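Contributing new records

If you add data, match the layout below exactly. Sequence lines come first and carry their own label; structure lines follow with theirs. Keep one chain per record. Anything else will be rejected by the validation script.
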Amino acid sequence: MSTVLSALNRKGVLPVTISPGATVMDALKIMEEKNIGSVVVMQNEEYLGIMTERDYSRKVILKNKDSAHTKVSEIMSTGLPSVAPSDTIERCMQLMSEKNIRYMPVFENNKLTGIISMSDVVKETIQAQKETINQLHNYINS
């Protein structure tokens, strides 16, 4: 069974962070530069939330706010469910579906160790299916 840790190891990237006082425009520039859909909001190494493209579209664009003057802290998502590295990909899928979210923080010993996205969950599920197919193929041919 695939775990969050295996997905994070496959991904091999630490989360991209931004301070809560940064502007939304700053966050968007980072997201564009890194080709990602979210940034983790941190202050003094403490996790505060996640700002996503969805937050931007719903809380800035649709409300006619100015991206250059709106702070990340004003639109970030907080109170998201979290997972541990030992949790299963199936658990992530369940939480993401129930809460209609695309990103979740991963904590170990109360410390942020990564972000898992819906894309990571899909990739890990596909990888697990490929491994199962290979095992079945090898079993049939043996």
